[in-house]
Records
---
Amino acid sequence: MILRQLAIEIVQVALLIGLSPLFIGWVRMLKCWSQGRSSAGILQPYRDLAKLFAKDVILAENASWIFRFTPYLVFGTAVLAGGIIPILSVDLPLAPTADVIVLVGFFAVARFFTALAGMDIGAAFGGMGSSREMTIASLAEPAMLMSIFTVSLANQSTSLSYIVQVICSGQSVLRPSLAFAFLAFVLITLTETGRIPVDNPSTHLELTMIHEAMILEYSGRHLALIEWAGMMKLSLFVMLGIACFAPWGIASGVGLMEIVTAFIAMTLKLGLVAFGIVLIETGLAKMRLFRLTEFLGTAFLMATLGMLSFYILE
Amino acid sequence: MNLHAIAQINSFLAALVLLTAFAMLVQRRINGLIHLFAWQGLFLSVNTAMIGFVASKHHLYISSLLTLSLKVILLPYILHVLIVRLKIRKEVETIMNIPLTMLIGIILVIFSYHLTAPVRELSSLITRSTLAVALATVMIGLLMMITRKHAVTQIIGFLAMENGLFFAATSATYGMPLVVELGVALDVLIAAFIFGIFFFHIHTTFDSLDVEQMARLKEGD
């Protein structure tokens, strides 16, 4: 039994690592189609990664250990996060070791080191990117935690596995608190993964880039790891959202049929979420940096309203 | 339908009313404001009809229809015609910045929750928990009137306050007597016409609908 659980844990992490470039490829392909362009194909992210891995690393002379260590740390935290979130099954051996607050902590550690690495070389763009990233983080993280707390309150636990079990048992579907928390979560996902109203993932324009500015000095396998971790981060946030708000289909045990069903459900949900992301991205323009306080303030407001409506209405 | 499901739909609609109230608080464009106001009216009207169905109070159907025709169709139409005639296109200026306004809004929600907590203990209606939301809607409407400089947005804030009062009446006592509600509806309609006339006069006198300009009306200097 325990072997089987371990096997599922490993399969789940491997799926996350292996399939997140595919998800990004699917999002990019849909985006190309929606704008009337022909796409580079769904496998293009894999080719990009392979190209980057094949290249040499060029390090600045004054790069410290932080700069060299960060790509591995960022990749590692993403993999660890994949071990906690119930993607296929709730019966994970690692799940009791960490709850959803630790998960937010993982993302915070990765962000902290990315920001340090951005400043490490001393180039102007890196420092600018780090400063912007931390500004956004200071606004996004309270909203993220508030949204997570609302979900935890409504389901009486901060453990993701337990939350999934409670929602799947399905006592109540129409819960205002969860709806508000979901809206907040969508806004925060767009922020944290650097999608369009906040940051444009496909541009290197000096004045607007945030995440790209921090990693501008990276090359070769370091860049590949960071890019890969970025792809995993998008998948992780989507899967976290699925686990918190629409977990139907995630297996409650470790039976083979259950896992296969869970895999099919996961694929369908990811495919649909990509449509949502593309709709948002083609419908909106990138926001001015100083309007972001309003955007993230709205996210915080939604999350707080969710918590209040849990007390008032439920 | 069982009572539990009805109570859930009711609280969900209440949440939507609260959401539109907040959205109006942060919306910068007048067109968007009018749309949000219409949506709020729609949620109210559906909610009223549903409560009328559960409590079998048939006069609530009439108030629901009144809300639908007045607040979802007629008043937004009048306001829309007004802003087209007066050529108001630009963004609305606010006195405070928007995140601060939102925080004050959250405090108002908490305040009204505490204010209505005793009523909630005493009441036995299925709508008792939405009273706090209704009171919060009234207060947010008031906050909107305070924080906006533009006459049209202040009127929308006033109308949103009236929405909140109507909602409070339905959730506290299953609605006011029909005569009162007819009177209030007529009042709001007449008020909207009078506002329209005032808008034209303010606009022709000051060439703007910014109420701060009215400080120029005082005598002396």
---
Amino acid sequence: MYPHERSLVKQLSEKPFALIGVNSDSDLDGIREIVKEKNITWRSFWNGPDGTSGPISTKWNVSGWPTIYVMDAKGTIRYKNVRGAKMDEAVTTLLAEMGHQVKLVHEDHAENE
Amino acid sequence: MIALSEVPPLLEIYPIFEVNYRKPWSERINLPVFRSLLVEIIFVERKIMKTKQLKLLVGLVLGFASTGWVSVVSATAMPSRQEQPANQDDESEKSPKQQIDEIIATFETKMTEFSKEYRSASEEDRQKIIDEKLPKASDYSGRLMELAKQHPADPAAVDALSWVFSRGRGDEASNEALEILLRDHVENEKLKDIVLMMSFGNPSQKIQDGIKRIINESPHHSVQGIATYGLAQFYSRVNQYQGLLDDPRIADSLAEEDLQYIKDFKLDPSQHEALYQTIVDQYGDVEYRNRTLGKLAGGALFEIKYLSIGKQVPDIEGADLDGEAFKLSDYRGKVVVIDFWGDW
């Protein structure tokens, strides 16, 4: 997951695109370490000390991790739970709607979760 | 890192699963059905689960286990070993309830013993312990069914049938137990303990009709409420299954009529929403495992109303991992991927 998402964020750094995490680990210090260690380059909300029972995931009725939503530029939900190549396809489609043609190429295994 | 040694104790909490330790993860755990089943359990249970157990289950769902020798399968896929629990006592002296309680207690004791032994054993001894000590629900179902049939009017018969249904999940005895429960005990308040379990597992017309019967015929407010929630969850599950039929492993595992039922099923979103609304309005106060149906159904309702494809995404206001406040709407004008993630 991390390599794929890192690659996505890197390749789309000049495009109107953002990957926003909602981190559901209860241990904030621990997850800060992970962010450094695994080179997680995108921004995340923290779901709070209750971890998976925190306020954001509870409100969003999230019952499995990862849960993924993809929005277009207007903030309309367009895709749910797309991963790997399907996430690429969703993002590419939505960027194309805005007139940005992109071709995503990932290095070895980056598409694998 | 997930400790696989935590698996056996979980079996006691989640009787609908048994672990097949011989098969590699990849063969079964990635089956979306089992993943979604686990997801559901996490959803229902997460308030009362210890973090470690939750993490393990999440790990199971994601197939993130570090070693490749354990998988979660439904109990039906397990080869059963036929050995009746030994019982030297004179059973004629005991009431049906005593006998039923004893059989169930014997199973629980064996499961606890197994868990303890498994956890303290070395890696190489574990397989042997599994082979020899892991108790099988199917070894206990026969005697419980017999007692339930001999004493159909005894309140303990319902306990026996419920146990066989929930522990045997999907095997023949389990199906029979459910049939008897619906036929003879549909008004029993204890059905609230099993009605949600009916919505797990392979969907069928029979299950749908069974849940509806409980809603219509139970005189108990709490049972009606939990059954209604079960029906709403059941509809989600059938809908989910429709998306999985491309996978031959799913399609092949279903009986022909169940497959047809799933294919023909059509989820009416407004009806589904109305069902959850009914639960919130009429049964919101009913408790299910430390949570209210109002809260459980309210979450599902929010998701349908505001988080369906085509809806305007609700804003998120919070702080990032460095404590800096920000909003999801700060990113309006961009294509945004939201990823609920955790490192486990």
